Amino acid sequence: MPTTRRTFLYTLTAAAPVAAQASKDSVRLGFIGSGIRGKQLIDEFLAVPGAKGVAVADLYDGCVQRAKEQLGDNIQAGREYRAVLDNKDVDAVVIATPDHWHEKIVLDALSAGKHVYIEKPMTWSIKEGPKIIDAAKRSGKVLQVGSQAKTSVLTAKAKELVASGALGKVNMIRMANHRNSAEGAWQYPVPPDASEKTIDWPAWLGRAQKRSFDPKIVFQWRRFWDFSGGVAADLFVHQFTQMHEIMNVKAPVSAVSQGRICKWDDGRTVPDVMNSLVEYPEGFLVDVYVNQANGQQPRGILIFGDQGTLQVEFGRLVLTPERKEGEAQNYGSLNFPKKLREEYLAKYANEERAPRPEPKEVPIERGQSHNWFFIDSILNNKPSRENAEEGHYAAAAAHLCNLAYRHKTRASWDPATGKVKL
Questions:
Q1: Share of residues in the chain with pLDDT > 90 (%)
Q2: Which H or E run includes 318?
Q3: pTM exceeding the 0.85 threshold for the entire prediction
Q4: Dihedral of the CA atoms 252, 257, 260, 262 (nearest 10)?
Q5: I need a surface site. Which of 26, 158, 324, 401 has the fewest CB within 10 A?
Q6: Domain ranges of the chain
Q7: How far apart are alpha carbons 404 and 390 in whole angstroms?
Q8: What distance in Å separates the CA atoms of residue 407 and residue 387, rounded to the nearest whole number?
Q9: Which CATH number fits domain 2-151+368-387: 3.40.50.300, 3.30.2010.10, 3.40.50.720, 3.10.250.10?
Q10: Cα 33 to Cα 38: distance, rounded to the nearest angstrom
């Protein structure tokens, strides 16, 4: 489940938090969107030295109340996110709203002079990224995207191994993130008091097509294209972000996709099973898939090179070198006449065949949490550890997969110009 995954990554990287150096100040945070992920973010930031929650905004009154239970009754709290942006005591905002609101709130926050932590995916569509990149550069503020694996020590070690040549030339990467439960398919429970009295439905819809009030949409919005990018934007993005960091690459150039609704035929418009094959200009392919109707596939990343394979799981790395093959070809010489084959094989009689190498687990140390890096960047004037460009390219990879799926064709993209060809 997403909760378990994020909780695990946070535990892995936040075991030994230290106070930000070179500053005695704190960062006063306003939380915009305090639903499931927003609740987690409040807890995670409260664990970071130098971070203090002072305001919250959510369009469901129950989420506002729960946030006050975390942060205290004396914080600024309400439905209107602009009130948080107008609050001069707020230094930075943490945004965890449905995807279709990300661009608008991020741009408004930067215009208001706030530092921004924006949950992944940074964007709802591929065209929104450049606008946010430009606004972040002009603002001079820290913008960090919330994909926790980006800054983990596990990712850093995997990047080091790939750069060392331990895998040889990487040719293919396989990424998977499966689950098989109602919770894993985003069928989250609807609070019993959910109504148009407790939820500002028109504001929640925002720029999306107008429709009658439906509380399931509010709490299960990832099931619908109007508000999310489905499994790609929710789950592919985590792994694209991590893989981009490990491989030290920017963005893909094309994708093909297949998918369908195999189990959760609950009115959703996004698929519950999806597989995409993505091409990178560095010369490797990425096979990425999610199955919400089977939970047996281990979650993680497999990186295949001509000299080894690296398995990147939650909490561990396993390196398996390729077996070095000899020159003698027993199978390849089967078509030789007997005498010629015996002479051919005799030339390699003293050749030693190496045994198949055993997988080796790579030791991993503990480090800081992704949230810690955001606070550290603000307090100590450091660059963002997951900036708008990186957030855009990771989200764009997922959007490219969705475009290929929805248009039933190969989707090509030029990261330099932003042009998509279908």
A1: 88
A2: strand 317-321
A3: yes
A4: -80
A5: 324
A6: 2-151+368-387
A7: 21
A8: 30
A9: 3.40.50.720
A10: 6
DSSP class of residue 96?
A: -
DSSP letters, 71-82, are: H-TTSEEES-HH
> What secondary structure does DSSP assign to 285-308, as a single string?
EEEEEEETT---SPPEEEEEESSE
Provide φ and ψ at 171, rounded to 5°: -120, -25
Least Cα distance to 251 among 212, 282, 222 occurs for: 282
In this structure, what token pair is assigned to residue 191? 């609070």
Cα separation, 341 vs 329, whole angstroms: 10
Residue in 326, 318, 321 with CA at minimum distance from that of residue 168: 321
Q: How far apart are the first and last CA of the chain?
A: 33
Helices 2-13 and 153-163: crossing angle, nearest 10°? Answer: 80
- In whole angstroms, what is the distance from residue 32 CA to residue 189 CA? 21
pLDDT of 324: 86
SS3 of residue 158 by DSSP: helix
Q: How confident is the model at residue 354 (pLDDT cuts 50, 70, 90)?
A: confident
The pairs formed by 415-420 with CB atoms below 8 angstroms and a separation of 24 or more are 415/250, 415/251, 415/253, 418/126, 418/127, 418/129, 418/130, 420/126
Specify the DSSP class assigned to residue 221: G
DSSP letter assigned to residue 310:
E
From CA 112, how far away is CA 241, in angstroms rounded?
A: 28
Q: Which residues pair with 310 in a beta bridge?
A: 303, 319
C-alpha 34/C-alpha 46 separation (Å) is: 14
pLDDT tens per residue across span 176-212: 999 999 999 999 999 999 999 999 999 999 999 999 9
Extract long-range pairs of 185-190: CB within 8 Å, 24+ residues apart: 185/263, 185/264, 185/266, 185/272, 185/292, 186/220, 186/222, 186/223, 186/234, 187/220, 187/264, 187/266, 188/36, 188/219, 188/220, 189/219, 190/215, 190/216, 190/218, 190/219, 190/220
Indicate the length of the chain as a whole number. 422
Which among 312, 292, 295, 188 is positioned nearest to 244, based on CA atoms? Answer: 312
